């Protein structure tokens, strides 16, 4: 025998990757259509059908129908093709999808359909539709995915636009000492639930962008069908691109400034070109409204300006036309969360030898530069560009709207933050995605399947009132069942995590005792920036241990979350939490689960009794995770930030007091708020959960669950959110777009230029009221007389207003209302104008008024749009005076 030798084994890498698709029997062809429409991700009957095809394969494929169809053995496919019961179910599900795709829904049933936009293009850097299409990192993407799904359910003609990242965000594991590890699996589009958008000759549809030096960036267009809504996704990994350009769509939020800039140019500019291509190929109506979800897609406005300039409009007129049909949503309450690029970097990527060569690069730069008090004039700010290119803008909760108005008030000098034209549409969540099947089945059994489905999609308080009819025992049994399912899920995931961390099977027997299905279960899962305070619960570890190990009222906590790969501070927070959870004394009561994503979340939200959220107020723009818990009967325990500030009531949750007075001392603030959290858990939350009434049930807890569902259910729905967008933003934007014909756009652009040039000559010269006094009676009407100078402008160019309301100790107006005054006659000999009007004193207490002049034009969406206002000087007369006490 030859001598034994040592052989080194190498892993052989493929030089080319491709996907071998299964050949489905003809009778099963509809399965392919069902798999390619992502409605399956929120339609239980479709998922059940796929699972029944091969339960083992379904589990191994993590519930992904596309992977399932590539994994089911041919023999099993042949068997299914002869299974009459399966084929009947397949036909029924296929017919249901056809009805869903073509039938009239809420949008089509509106009384005056022609008033509504023909189509809306919705741009976002990430979309969380399903774990099978991992193109999201956190809340922004999940919100965008829920927006598309709710639009589909309501029949809103939306076109989604995003990027297709070859590595998605990242997969998270832990090292043995609890440090976050990132992994970037390659995603093959041919293995994802997307299809190529094809030209008539069968070639893959593409868009192209110019790069400095005359190079081109090519990108293919893929289509993901989200129910009725097409989602276009751009992919730069094509052979014609150089290696650097191929990597533009490599990772979500990866790379340096230039990499991010190219991603955002491709998303915005390439996205508009993809929409035009899609509409040309499919006959879909062209969008009348363009909605940019955060500033990442802001360059879409530049492409639309360039289109209009190519059609003969000048830049200023094109800008007005584009603004009229643009909606901008901001999601960040802190300047650090906004993408900002160096001026020279942006300038290099636009102009004669790069992208948009027909537009003066200085005009482009002016749209995004921070040319306002407090800004950094050398930085190009994507949110600032979004606001300057969008006639309508919103934050994502009432509190966040207030914060945004203050944060961006420099763009509207002379106006109080309350008058900055940024409104609010509070986020919502897509109930069919996030409500556990068991919750839906209980509703269907007790109040009817159709009624339950309507409640979860269309909303409306009257549909949710039926929860009053469900028995306490039914609710408590449901909550216990969901908690038990979470316990099983946690043990499986924890075991897999410890194996990845290097633990042997013999040392993991303790995992069988982790968590208890009868113990109060608290969830905390989200991204891990510092302001979300993952480790606030650890401020007093002895106190936390007492709560976890209480002999009569213990709690258990499930924690999950990812830190950005470049955020070592966030990774240290995770490590601190993991090390505490590894302590043998408490590891059966607190766990950290790595690789937080949609699949985990869909088990976590329903299984938790309480959802914990303790950010630094007011840095949570909305925070939708607590909404998903609420839809499953979970109670919220949260700082009053984001949506919870808006809808909190003590009969269905708890508010963690905030130490606003200690805001400058972060350690003291954290100590105070952690102490408040421990007090709530120990003195109010846990006692309420374990308290039993005469029937042996926690009656008061069950009543809080019932109130959560009845009060929050109709509010937190993405359907409610999308209806608000349609009614308050999309429809007015479509009307403005239609009114802004080329002649109107030119008129408005010329008028704005004239008003800006003449504004220094606009003055409030004198304000008077007869018999002004320090006190007056409620119901009195004062006659105002105001003398103003309009310079080169005419009364038709302005509105003179009396602004009145309560005043504080600094004579600042609060809850102010504006009343338009009218010219009394023609101009006086010196060119001044006299305006008159009544001022009704309709409130008691300290009361005051002032007068101001704003630009006015029929095509403006807001009097603050130009950021111009004239107010009285100290010599002008009474100005603002306290009238009632």
TrEMBL record:
EC number(s) recorded for this UniProt protein: 2.4.1.1
Family: Belongs to the glycogen phosphorylase family.
Domain of life: Bacteria
Enzyme class: transferase
InterPro entries (alphabetical): Agluc_phsphrylas, Glyco_trans_35, Glycogen/Maltodextrin_Phosph, Glycogen_phosphorylase_DUF3417, Pyridoxal_P_attach_site
Domain DUF3417: residue ranges: 24-133
Database matches in CDD domains: GT35_Glycogen_Phosphorylase-like
Keyword Glycosyltransferase: yes
Catalyzed reactions: [(1->4)-alpha-D-glucosyl](n) + phosphate = [(1->4)-alpha-D-glucosyl](n-1) + alpha-D-glucose 1-phosphate
Organism (species): Streptomyces lannensis
Stored SUPFAM superfamilies: UDP-Glycosyltransferase/glycogen phosphorylase
Cofactor: pyridoxal 5'-phosphate
PROSITE patterns: PHOSPHORYLASE
Pfam families cross-referenced by the UniProt entry: DUF3417, Phosphorylase
Protein's UniProt name: glycogen phosphorylase
PANTHER family found in the cross-reference section: GLYCOGEN PHOSPHORYLASE
Function noted in UniProt: Phosphorylase is an important allosteric enzyme in carbohydrate metabolism. Enzymes from different sources differ in their regulatory mechanisms and in their natural substrates. However, all known phosphorylases share catalytic and structural properties.
NCBIfam families: more_P_ylases
Keywords: Allosteric enzyme, Carbohydrate metabolism, Glycosyltransferase, Pyridoxal phosphate, Transferase
């Amino acid at each position: 025998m030859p001598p034994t030798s040592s052989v080194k084994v190498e892993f052989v890498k493929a030089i080319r990757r491709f996907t071998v698709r299964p050949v489905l029997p003809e009778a099963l062809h509809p399965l392919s259509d069902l798999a390619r429409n992502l409605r399956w991700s929120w339609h239980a009957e479709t998922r059940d059908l796929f699972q029944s095809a091969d339960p083992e394969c379904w589990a191994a494929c993590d519930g992904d129908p596309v992977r399932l169809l590539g994994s089911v053995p041919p023999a099993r496919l042949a068997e299914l093709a002869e299974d009459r019961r399966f084929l009947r179910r397949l036909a029924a599900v296929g017919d249901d999808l056809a009805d869903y795709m073509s039938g009239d829904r809420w949008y089509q049933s509106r009384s005056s359909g022609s008033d509504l936009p023909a189509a809306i293009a919705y741009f976002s850097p990430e979309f969380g539709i399903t774990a099978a299409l991992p193109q999201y990192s956190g809340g922004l993407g999940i919100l965008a995915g829920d927006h598309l799904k709710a639009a589909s359910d309501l029949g809103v003609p939306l076109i989604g636009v995003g990027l297709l990242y070859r590595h998605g965000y990242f997969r998270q594991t832990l090292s043995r000492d609890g440090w976050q590890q990132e992994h970037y699996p390659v995603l093959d589009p041919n293995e994802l639930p997307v299809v190529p958008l094809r030209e008539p000759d069968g070639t893959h549809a593409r868009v192209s962008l110019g790069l400095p030096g005359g190079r081109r960036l090519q990108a293919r267009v893929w289509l993901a069908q989200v129910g009725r809504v097409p989602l276009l996704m751009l992919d730069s990994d094509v052979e014609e691109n150089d290696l650097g350009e191929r990597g533009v769509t490599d990772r979500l939020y990866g790379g340096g400034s230039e990499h991010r800039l190219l991603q955002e140019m491709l998303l915005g500019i390439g996205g508009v070109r993809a929409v035009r291509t899609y509409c040309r190929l499919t006959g879909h109506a062209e969008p009348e409204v363009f909605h940019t979800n955060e500033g990442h897609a802001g360059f879409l406005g530049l492409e639309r300006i360039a289109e209009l300039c190519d059609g003969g409009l000048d830049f200023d007129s094109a800008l007005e036309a584009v603004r009229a049909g643009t909606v901008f949503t901001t999601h960040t309450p802190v300047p650090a969360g906004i993408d900002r690029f160096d001026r020279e970097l942006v300038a290099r990527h636009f102009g004669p030898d790069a992208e948009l060569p027909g537009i003066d690069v200085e005009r482009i730069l002016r749209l995004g530069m921070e040319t306002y008090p407090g800004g950094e004039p050398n930085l190009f700010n994507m949110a600032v560009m979004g606001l300057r290119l969008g006639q309508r803008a919103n934050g994502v909760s009432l509190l966040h709207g207030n914060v945004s108005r203050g944060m961006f008030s420099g763009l509207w000098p002379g106006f109080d933050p309350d008058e900055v034209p940024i409104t609010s549409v509070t986020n919502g969540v897509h109930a069919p995605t996030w409500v556990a099947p068991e919750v839906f089945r209980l509703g269907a059994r007790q109040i009817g399947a159709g009624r339950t489905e309507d409640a979860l999609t269309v909303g409306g308080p009257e549909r949710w009132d039926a929860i009053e009819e469900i028995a306490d025992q039914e609710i408590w049994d449901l909550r216990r069942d969901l908690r038990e399912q979470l316990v099983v899920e946690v043990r499986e995931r924890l075991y897999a995590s410890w194996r990845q961390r290097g633990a042997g099977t013999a040392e993991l027997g303790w995992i069988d005792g982790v968590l208890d299905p009868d113990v109060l279960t608290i969830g905390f899962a989200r991204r891990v920036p510092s302001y979300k305070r993952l480790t606030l619960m650890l401020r007093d570890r002895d106190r936390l241990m007492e709560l976890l190990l209480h002999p009569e009222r213990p709690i258990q906590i499930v924690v999950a979350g990812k830190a950005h790969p470049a955020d070592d501070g966030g990774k240290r927070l995770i490590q601190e939490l993991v090390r505490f959870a590894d302590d043998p004394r408490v590891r059966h009561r607190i766990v950290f689960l790595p690789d937080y994503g949609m699949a985990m979340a869909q088990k976590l939200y329903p299984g938790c009794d309480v959802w914990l959220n303790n950010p630094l107020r007011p840095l949570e723009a909305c925070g939708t995770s607590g909404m998903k818990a609420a839809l499953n009967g979970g109670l919220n325990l949260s700082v009053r930030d984001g949506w919870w500030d808006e809808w909190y009531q003590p009969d269905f949750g708890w508010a963690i007091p905030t130490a606003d007075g200690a805001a400058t001392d972060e350690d003291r603030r954290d100590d105070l708020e952690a102490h408040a959290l421990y007090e709530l858990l120990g003195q109010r939350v846990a006692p309420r959960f374990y308290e039993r009434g005469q029937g042996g049930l926690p009656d008061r807890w069950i009543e809080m669950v019932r109130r959560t569902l009845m009060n929050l259910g109709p509010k937190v729905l993405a359907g409610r959110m999308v209806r608000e967008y349609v009614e308050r933003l999309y429809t007015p934007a479509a009307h403005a777009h239609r009114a802004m014909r080329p002649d109107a756009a030119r008129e408005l652009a010329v008028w704005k230029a004239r008003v800006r040039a003449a504004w220094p000559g606009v003055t409030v010269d004198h304000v008077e009221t007869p018999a002004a006094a320090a006190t007056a009676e409620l119901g009195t009407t004062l006659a105002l007389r105001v003398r103003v100078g309009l310079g080169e402008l005419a009364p038709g160019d302005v509105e003179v207003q009396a602004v009145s309301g309560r005043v504080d100790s600094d004579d600042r107006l609060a809850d102010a209302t504006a009343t338009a005054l009218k010219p009394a006659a023609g101009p006086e000999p010196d060119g001044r104008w006299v305006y008159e009007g009544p001022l009704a004193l309709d409130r008691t207490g300290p009361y005051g008024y002032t007068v101001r002049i704003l630009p006015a034009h029929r095509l403006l969406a807001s009097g603050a749009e130009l950021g111009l206002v004239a107010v009285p000087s100290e010599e002008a007369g009474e100005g603002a005076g306290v009238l009632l006490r």
